[in-house]
Automatic annotation (TrEMBL):
This is LysR family transcriptional regulator. The keyword Transcription regulation applies. Signal peptide: none annotated. One of its GO terms (molecular function) is transcription cis-regulatory region binding. Residues 1-58 form the HTH lysR-type domain. Pfam families: HTH_1, LysR_substrate. InterPro entries: LysR-like_Sec_metab, LysR_HTH_N, LysR_subst-bd, WH-like_DNA-bd_sf, WH_DNA-bd_sf. The keyword Mitochondrion does not apply. Keywords: DNA-binding, Transcription, Transcription regulation. It comes from the Bacteria. Coiled coil: none annotated.
Length: 294
């Protein structure tokens, strides 16, 4: 027995006619008859008395009909729930984000998305890339925006934003040594292990044949904002996202120096390959990808 058979049964019962049910359902009359026969065999009872050209529902059919109609209506209600969920974007978005997208990009993008979908709320958990991907692997969050694609093959990564890292410091540190310094001679600030910024920096230094172990590291700091504040205080120089220090570059409290080719990187949407994203999560992902292409 399946829902298709029940639809045919209900139609025949309603019209008291195989031919009218055939026309209503756009199914041939022999097919209608075959389905009713199969249903009767499965239920081990007769559902209709054939009285020449007319039919009459049996006692068993009268008992089954209300339940069949309810099953059909329940199925339609389930379908409508799914259809509504796909078009009615609402709910809470719990998103993990590394420090650059979490602090400098997502607040603006969340506000823009909420203007389109007022029934959306956000919970943004800011951590480094490794902690964010660990949270996805442990099923604590469904979606993350991170600054590097880490190893786990069970995660899917899709590039959505571009970023540029720059070598920066105060004018006192960089201008006073103009023409005489090399990167090994300057005090250096770096992010902690697991940071996407640190991974990108290390990859870039390796390509430039700069030995990261020989850098004069004076501090390892746990967030981009901590690096920025240490830069402004003159503690050292660093490689940092340009997005994080745009205001300081504009007002001159920090300057950047070119020490090689541009350091470009991507931010990635990350989620577990075996987890499906609900409609409101997928809508936000689509929004992020569309925003980047505008």
């Amino acid at each position: 027995m399946d829902i298709h058979q029940l639809r045919i049964f209900a139609s025949v019962y309603h019209f008291r006619s195989f031919s009218k049910a055939s026309g209503h359902l756009h199914i041939s009359q022999p097919t209608i008859s075959e389905h009713i026969k199969n249903l009767e065999e499965e239920l081990e009872c007769s559902l209709f008395d054939r009285l020449g050209r007319s039919i009459m529902p049996t006692r068993e059919a009268k008992r089954i009909y209300p339940k069949a109609v309810k099953l059909i209506e329940d199925l339609e209600a389930i379908k409508e729930t799914i259809r509504t969920g796909l078009t009615d974007i609402k709910g809470s978005l719990k998103i993990g984000a590394s420090t650059i997208p979490g602090n400098y990009m997502l607040p603006f993008l969340a506000a823009k998305f909420k203007k389109k979908h007022p029934d959306i709320s956000f919970e943004i958990i800011i951590a480094d890339t490794r902690k964010t991907t660990d949270s996805i692997l442990q099923h604590e969050i469904l979606l993350g925006i991170v600054g590097a694609s880490m190893e786990p093959r069970s995660l899917s990564y899709e590039a959505v934003f571009c970023d540029e890292l720059v070598f920066a410091g105060t004018p006192d540190l960089l201008d006073s040594n103009a023409g005489t310094w090399d990167i090994y001679s300057l005090p250096f600030l770096i992010r902690e292990e697991g940071s996407g910024t640190r991974k990108t920096m290390e990859d870039w230094l390796e390509k430039m044949e700069i030995n990261a172990r020989k850098l004069n590291v004076v501090a390892i700091l746990g967030s981009t904002d901590a690096v920025k504040q240490a830069l402004k205080a003159g503690l050292g120089t660093s490689i940092i996202s340009r997005r994080a220090i745009e205001e300081e570059l504009d007002n001159g409290s920090l300057i950047q120096k070119k020490i090689g080719p541009e350091m470009k990187r991507s931010f990635y949407l990350a989620h577990h390959k075996k987890r499906s994203l609900p409609a409101h999560y997928q809508a936000f992902c689509d929004f992020l990808k569309q925003t980047e292409n505008e």
